[in-house]
Amino acid sequence: MSTEEKSLNFIEQIIEEDLKKGLPQDKLRFRFPPEPNGYLHVGHASAICLNFGLGIDYNAPVNLRFDDTNPSKEEQEFVDAIKRDVEWLGYQWDKECYASDYFQQLYDWAVELIKKDKAYVDSQTSEEMAIQKGTPTTPGTDSPYRNRSIEENLDLFERMKQGEFEKGTHVLRAKISMNANNMLMRDPIIYRIMHAHHHRTGNDWCIYPMYDWAHGESDYLEQVSHSFCTLEFLPHRELYDWFLNQIYDESKVRPKQREFARRNLSHTVVSKRKLLQLVTEGHVTGWDDPRMSTISGMRRRGITATAIRNFAKTIGIAKRENLIDVSLLDFCVREDLNKVAPRVMAVLDPVKLVITNYPEGQEEWLEAENNPEEEVMTYRKVPFSKELYIEREDFQEEAHKKFFRLSLGTEVRLKNAFIIKGESVVKDADGNITEIHCTYDVDSKSGSGSEASKRKVKGTIHWVSIPHAIEAEIRVFDRLFTHENPDGNKEVDFKEYINPNSLEVITGYLEPSLQSAKELEHFQFQRLGYFCVDKESTPEKLVFNKTVGLRDTWAKVSVQ
């Protein structure tokens, strides 16, 4: 990477410094290391874009490594979802790796630690270990089992592996120091007993390595040069390096852990544990609910991979945590969809409009442009008839001065069609308008070149021909949480801030060109927002999700 091309973030500066110190360019290797215990969320998206983006910038391979060391919470479903998300974001990994690929080597290294008197089997309960570990201001005390003989430790560890003991009866701990300032260094656990079926290794193992032991050693085995983690792993770096010191061969690349800050998104949560809670307790319909901060949920909502990559690039990498307003993501979504989404006409709050002087039974097909942002303009045909739907808010019986849409006695243009003039209304017994009657200027057809077609009117409104309209289910989403930082106050259950109005299901009426729309196709419903086809949509019952409005109109709900 040339430093002249752009200013470097601190992660890139670290890499550049290592290259200057003699690390060969062809030894650069990065990794994205998710745990397959849930679906990836927007925070993971930033990490994916960072690591794979570095791979692209430095022409270096990037591994996708699943840290699958806790079989009680991991499933193949999550592995498949993670791979799908990374590919959808536009990235391709060099090697697909698993911590479970290295279980035998990790075990063998643990045996070597025991032989060097650097690890021992502890038979205390977890409660006893927590007490003897001390506090950040007081030193710990040695386990009564810390000085077991090497022979006894080797025997117990082998028997743990063979499944002779129940969960919780023994653990293997590194023998470092019970007086370390960093509490993670106070004889951390390396292995625990778990009689659980692993989604890849089956029932081969009864003991599983802890994350801290498996992570750095896996980096080393894969010859990852730079291991980038979020800031909460900063205290773990000392342990990461201590473990590497026990096995490092100077002829190989030594991985370097460095940390960057999480970028939290407002009005959502990004804890997999809390996202799982939302799913299992039925607050959402699943991991891919369009209100979720998961990549799957965002994809289903209609947010594009390009928008997410642009969002990650915009917020950048920092050393301090920050709460990013979700409106910035919305902006990136609008910016991308504006370029790629065809414009179509749909009415979501319909009122009937009758053109009284239009011939009974007549219909015509008018030309409409698909997207003015296209380099080469394309067009489609939309049907026009005597009876139309328009948006209820596009009409006022008695309009104020700044209302530039349809009212009695005023003219507006129907998009791609004719100029009409409001003449009268029909109301029901409660005084609600059920029909608007108007007349049209037959010579004012858009694009006809006539003098009447060039006449300027103050407003243009969209419409759908009633005889041709397709009925569809429209799902309109709002923020899932009313508070910008629902996870910010640890004394308040984050679920207290769930927005009871985060989903509204309405019936909309669409132009017939949308009949053949396929899952995840994006459209701009003119003057209403961006929408995409939901996975539950069928030709018999179309379902559209609102991705984002044309502008940010969301009003924050006050929280007591």
From TrEMBL:
It catalyses: tRNA(Gln) + L-glutamine + ATP = L-glutaminyl-tRNA(Gln) + AMP + diphosphate. One of its GO terms (molecular function) is ATP binding. Its EC number is 6.1.1.18. Residues 27-338 form the Glutamyl/glutaminyl-tRNA synthetase class Ib catalytic domain. One of its GO terms (cellular component) is cytosol. This is Glutamine--tRNA ligase. The keyword Nucleotide-binding applies. It comes from Flavobacterium profundi. Coiled coil: none annotated. It holds the Pfam family tRNA-synt_1c. Keywords: Aminoacyl-tRNA synthetase, ATP-binding, Cytoplasm, Ligase, Nucleotide-binding, Protein biosynthesis. Belongs to the class-I aminoacyl-tRNA synthetase family. GO terms for biological process: glutaminyl-tRNA aminoacylation. Residues 341-441 form the Glutamyl/glutaminyl-tRNA synthetase class Ib anti-codon binding domain. It is an enzyme of class 6 (ligase). Residues 460-534 form the tRNA synthetases class I (E and Q) anti-codon binding domain.
